[in-house]
Amino acid sequence: MSNIVAIVGRPNVGKSTFFNRLIQRREAIVDAVSGVTRDRHYGKSEWNGKEFSIIDTGGYVLGSDDVFEAEIDKQVELAIDEADAIIFMVDVESGVTGMDEDVAKLLRKVNKPVFLVVNKVDNSKRNEDAVEFYALGLGEYYTIASINGSGTGELLDALVKALPEKENVVEEDLPRFAVVGRPNAGKSSFINALIGEDRYIVTDIAGTTRDSIDTKYSRFGFEFNLVDTAGIRRKAKVKEDLEFYSVMRSVRAIEHCDVCLIVMDATRGFDGQVQNIFWLAERNRKGIVILVNKWDLVEKDHKSTNEFEKTIRQQIEPFTNVPIVFISSLTKQRIFKAIETAVEVYNNRTKKIKTSKLNEIFLPLIESYPPPALKGKFVKIKYIMQLPTPQPQFAFFCNLPQYVKEPYKRFLENKLREQFDFTGVPISIYMRKK
Fold this sequence. Notes:
Structural class: alpha/beta
Order of helices and strands: EHEEHEHEHEHEHEEHEHEHEHHEEHE
Distance between the termini: 32 Å
Shape: globular
Strand order of the largest sheet: 2-3-1-4-5-6
Number of strands: 15
Radius of gyration: 24 Å
């Protein structure tokens, strides 16, 4: 069970830039205009061998048109409640503001690690200016420049050291299938249709489900837990201040499941929020099934299914080996096919390939198509084995692992998928020194 770190602060202090640096990919939109971050952004990060989930909460402006005046207080309170550590980011250019003081007032009462981070400190003069943030009453602060990464190492050293050790909770050893997606996509309706009773409240109001709820379920002679999660929605659509709570619970549900059933609304398409959920599940190396719900509401012809599926696969490249099932929770169209597919993905994720079989197939293949020579160095792969991990991970032992680049690893992954059925499951490939 990994920790959750929340980044809070007012708009335009550089939270999204810092978030992008932590997850090592440009995912959040970064712009000089305040309020650009509309979606909550969340991802995985790792420092000194310790993994944690990171959430960029977006910025808030008191009294703006699309948020309530008290939202900043409530959002920080939810961050305090759910996160294991909090990064409070401020901006040296503007100094201490009234909103900074409001947040600091709440954080001073917290019995969790709080890191005051002064951003945009990229020269000695600004380093001197940062002293004024002692006035916030949060003790020591860290100075960084998120745009170039200076100072982040010292901050992350302290952060991972302060994160609490998570206990391994012993639970019933049943596979967990998490039903995730943005609010009002039909997640609870899908589970109700499966179990044949109104176990959950189902309404047309987004955000009805506020927590993760487990249901033991048996189908096709296979018993597992179905997890209905709170939805993940855009800040502009929030009418209650439970969004941040929902995001955190959904992140935890994804982290602790075996297969994610990503429910999307066919009338809305595979939008940015659904893509965020997809890539979060992929980064956590979970099995994935995409369920296109409300398919009965879409005007279609004989080409519609193929065209819709093609559009989704273009947006999830290069991990396109994911099953897509078109369903309707209302008419119960293909809902049992969705579960059957999820069971198949679970079996693919837990599949173990014998070492002898791997070497028998791959050594001749690698000899015919060896890794490209680099700087006159020739890589020789001598041995392959599957690692004893919950998800498919393979080690290729060779003389020069540092010279094997991503395109060749992708070639190996494609060959693994050709030889063995890993549909719906991310594969990790490691080059190890022999």
